[in-house]
Amino acid sequence: MKITLKDxxxxxxxxAMSVLDIAKSISEGLAxxxxxxxxxxxxxxxxxxxxxxxxxxxxxxEDEAGKIAFRHTTSHILAQAVKRLYxxxxxxxxxxIADGFYYDFDKEKAFTPEELEAIEAEMKKIVKEDLPIxxxxxxxxxxxxxxxxREEPYKVELIQDLPADxxxxxxxxxxxxxxxxxxxxxxxxxxxxxxxxSVAGAYWRGSEKNKMLSRIYGTxxxxxSELEAYLTMMEEAKKRDHRKLGKELKLFTMLEEGPGFPxxxxxxxxxxxxxLDYWRQIHKEAGYVEVSTPLILxxxxxxxxxxxxxxxxxxxxxxxxxxxxAIKPMNCPGGMLIYxxxxxxxxxxxxxxxxIGLVHRHEKSxxxxxxxxxxxxxxxxxxxxxxxxxxxDEISGVIxxxxxxxxxxxxxYHIELSTRPEDSMGxxxxxxxxxxxxxxxxxxxxxxxxxxxxxGAFYGPKIDFHLEDSIGRTWQCGTIQLDMQxxxxxxxxxxxxxxxxxRPVMIHRVCFGxxxxxxxxxxxxxxGQFPTWLAPVQVKVLxxxxxxxxxxxxxxxxxxxxxxxxxxxxxAEKIGYKIREARNERVPYIIVVGEKDQAVNKVSLRSRKNxxxxxxxxxxxxxxxxxxVRTKALD
Length: 635
Hints:
By secondary structure, the protein is an alpha+beta fold. Helix content is 35%, strand content 27%. The radius of gyration is 29 Å and the shape is globular.
């Protein structure tokens, strides 16, 4: 039997070998432990490679499928440890999640920090035992009986709710067996580094009508050094939490009168408007026009766009004059209507139409998270209407624009090409043309990308930009979506060179994505220390005492007249205290004025970058700040 491994390495195996022996042989010698396999494009446990020529890719911890298998196995190790220490506890579910895993338990009292320590120690013992992990299947009736005998009612309920044709599989490791679809590691040994991070309450199956369970969260890595790096990043992330810094810097607030609806404070509005001014500047230079579409539009429009069918559960609706309306969750249908207001020739195309539109989406309360997940936000949409021949050049232009934006803020990024989802509309031919259009633009620009199968929008494939911030976390922000469906649904037309009527092709794209979310990312990326051009307050003027208030005002007025955002602290506090407060506000520049400064008509400058810089002419300070703003320099 021949098996093609990753990187086209072919290995031949004796057909008499067991599949488990083949799987172990495949994993030998790899830099990382083999976690799972992909057979015929699907994630599988390597033990289930068929006994014939097959193509297999080994997933390691570097692969997303490998991480899932690794952490899914760790959740089973957690459950096994809990059952060893607390046999009376009942098991619920335990999936892998982003950066870790959790498991839900039915325990009379919540787990204490001391119990978490004991569980973590027991998990490490299980890892050292190097327990082989074995998969087996049972018919429905036997599976139910199996879990009833083990007094696991939540597992019984899960089995009973499975579809009639479902394969009911179990994974066994030593004295522990769990209902699970897999995949898993081949033993417990590779899980070298484990950390249980927290305990929370969680309703069974997410319904408040059900019992509250205890959820233990954790994370795991193949190496202790990787776990340590992750925990260090998490500690740094706590310091940078945009909700904490947003409150300290008086940027925004979230109030119980409007959960998920952010209130922007004066400093936050300066930051937001500065971003929007930058957006308008670069889009004008790139040949875009700006439009605005209504907040509420009728059901017929959303039905025509496909949103009523595919997105209704995320939309807020209302009734006006006995007719159904929806508050827009996206700006694109309104853009279609604007395009239709004029007859267009091929000479008019491409038309690049931008909109900073306020949209509303119904998010569950449990999913809300500061500015990162809200129920209303401004989307920096743009819609480009073009001929098929213009697809490659327009996509290339959008990639260059988004690249410039992210470099402006110091972000690295990687790109994913997301393909047709199951819930899609349009013909196979349209999807092939659209997907190839995106793929060709990426390849002709020599841009590396990965393919994210089945994660496109319901109306077209897309390119997603994943930013990496200053502490290594990734965020999905920018996107380019090629759409051949909405122009068809809205019957958009242009007159071709031969006088015939043609359908334009359309690009949906965003740079920032949600402005609010992008602000949250920037707060954490810069740890609140915004570059001078973005800082809500660029200079804080501090008189040493009340005697120098008039001179402080004179300095402040000159800064303001030069277009610099300035605040003056006239409080009768000691200068050391005022300096510390200004530092906590993370302003780029602090100007201190006292008797010596006033006598020579100068100012004492402190900068965030260099600390104390001594006496300077105010004109020099103004010129320096203006140059930083003009060039949009990073610190």
